[in-house]
Design a protein that fits this description.
The complex is a heterodimer of chains A (307) and B (276). Chain A contains 13 helices and 2 strands; from the N terminus they run H-E-E-H-H-H-H-H-H-H-H-H-H-H-H. Chain A has 307 residues and is mainly α. Chain A has a two-stranded antiparallel sheet with strand order 1-2. In chain A, a hairpin with a 2-residue loop joins strand 1 and strand 2. In chain A, helix 2 crosses helix 13 and helix 4 crosses helix 7. Chain B is globular. Classes of the chains: A mainly alpha (307), B mainly alpha (276).
Chain lengths: 307, 276
Amino acid sequence: MGLVQVGSPVVHMPRPRRFTRRAWQGYLMLLPSAVILLTFTIWPMIIALYHSLCLQDSAHPVPKFVGLANFGMLFHSHLFWQVMGNTFLFIVATVPVSLVAAMILAVMLNRRYRLTGFFRVALFHPTVLPLVSAASIWLFMYTPDYGLIDKALSAFGGAQLNWLGQPRTAIWAIIIMTIWKQLGYFVIFYLAGLQGIGKDPYEAADVDGASAWTTFWTITVPLLMSTTMFVFTIAMVDAFQLVDQLYVMTQGGPDNGTNMLLFYIYQQSFTYQNTGEASALSVILIAMLIFVAILQNVVDKRVHYES
Amino acid sequence: MGMKRRLSNGFIQAVLAILAIGWIMPLVWVVLMAFKDPNNPNSVTSLFGGLMPSLQNFVDAWQSAQFGMYYVNTIELVAGIVIIQLITTTLAGYAFARIHMPGRNIIFIMFLLQLMVPVSALIIPNYMTMQNLHLVNTKWAIMLPYFASAMGTFLMRQTFRQLPREIEEAATMDGAKWWQILWHVLLPGMRPALVAFTLVSVSFHWNDFLWPLIVTSTPQTQPLTIGLQLLTQMGETGAQWQMICAGTLIVVAPLLILFIIFQRKFVNSFMQTGMK
């Protein structure tokens, strides 16, 4: 699910000094949400941090404090770096492409056409599909010989390939499928951003006789900057947490060629019972997610000050 | 409209059309596949070969996995989550928007954390919590972590802020209690935001997979996404694609049909919940 812009400023009212009856009402209204958030967001972060510092696996069911040993073990493991490398490649290959494509598509879709309804359904329908279903569909698409991809390629004389069967193509197969699934979702936010710009700047540019290209670069791109930062954050958070397609399509394989951070956490924890190491991985994931949020916040403030 | 503008319009439409056809191809293929005869060798070798006007594949898929049970579970889970969320987010959104209380900013930061670190990143500790609460393999385990939504809370807070204070003050003067004001005076103005949040939340939880996979282990508690995954796994052991495609459509049909009918509403809802 999308995020609300993290940078939205807290309104600074004069700080009330007394706990008025009204204030108690407020606490009471916040209570149900706060209990859930404390239990399932704050507390788990503390638990993860604690377990990341403990030796705990199937041979050692009772957690024993070992300091940073889990992190040390990870940093010396070849698999960990392979997983981080895959995660990095996945992010670098999906996020910028999706962002640029989504912006261009939104600009194109922002006009009214006879076929607007069809364009919308075609581009946005993956947004409402479960990732698991999308992954099932693409599993068939990528099947050697019979799959739609191989059939299309063979029509152009291309070679038949077992796309998901070899590490080098498998990760790209996952990347392409993920872009297909997500692009429409990002287009939606850019369409919202374009509506926020309104018509005035474009009419002014029209009067000045600016070309479509100039208009795009000098008006659309800069004025969509805060939308871009927002979509960037969603795309990053999603890139770290999307694993359903790995589960369905490759199980992280072949040869860990598509294994990525969250799937690796899942495997270490629920397949191999390496709770300590998996918790250390979770701490790394949480740290990166918070880093992305802070980065977005900082850049977003700058964008707001400049405009 | 000038000649040049019209030309570029045509060009853009052509690009969009090609892209849209490519984008929808996987879905079209699944639909075709679901209506193909599993005993006809042409079914998989040619795009339109082996089509049959029968729902046999759907019947087979429905019977091979307990889709009836998965359906009921999914509806229960999604309804349970969304109804509770509507209550918790409305209350919290109202408190954040209208009530000044000491420590409000600190509580707000706690809500921000849920936006940054989603439940899926916390599967291990949350699973431990469910174990301690003896809730593993129950529907409560799937639903509980989602009973609060920071995204929903912020959306409601924003919407409450846009409602004029005057009507609230007038109602207070007339002696109405806060919950009467909330229910009778403010909620009507909240309807678009509530609908938007409901649509987004339903589509998120209808599609959720990893967390239910972790905390449940029997069909009695599991949602459709898990049922589909089990069916897809059967594909590796020789089950027919025709049946798996039918199973995929069984899972995606409700949201997909809703989306095709109300696409504008869906798109607007996603827009609205994504904005601050």
